[in-house]
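Bumping my old thread because nobody answered last time. Still need a sequence for this structure:
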């Protein structure tokens, strides 16, 4: 799957976000190693703490279906349904990625005007907790 196709699926997911408080929609498209893609969108809550990010929705849907091997994720976000800048995953989402992904897992962030930034999980979360570190 191309980066552009994955970003398009993230944009589609962005439009399903439930964001009555901030108005900021975020969509994610998670690529499994077998080619399956899981989409997720952010979902806000009046209490804020129960709010969940698009990336975690995508991961949890995939894990529920039995997937544990992931290649990449695309993330886009913005206000009023438009991509307005880069929306890197938050710290909690980065740690969820670390639970299931290797250092070379790719994070593609789509920005305004079709710009794309890509980094690895190791670059985004250099000292994350992992099962390997936990067991040492």
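Sorry it took so long. Here it is:
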């Amino acid at each position: 799957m191309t980066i552009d196709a994955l970003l398009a699926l993230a944009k589609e997911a962005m439009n399903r976000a439930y964001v009555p408080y901030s108005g900021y929609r975020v969509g994610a498209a998670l690529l499994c190693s077998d080619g399956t893609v899981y989409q997720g969108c952010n979902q806000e809550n009046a209490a804020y703490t129960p709010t969940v990010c698009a990336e975690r929705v995508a991961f949890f849907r995939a894990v529920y279906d039995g997937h544990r091997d992931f290649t990449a994720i695309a993330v886009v976000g913005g206000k009023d349904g438009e991509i307005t800048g880069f929306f890197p995953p938050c710290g909690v989402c980065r740690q969820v990625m670390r639970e299931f992904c290797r250092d070379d897992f790719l994070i593609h962030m789509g920005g305004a005007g079709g710009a794309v930034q890509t980094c690895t999980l190791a670059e985004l979360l250099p000292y994350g907790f992992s099962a390997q570190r936990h067991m040492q």
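DSSP finds five helices and five strands in the chain. Let me know if any region looks off to you.
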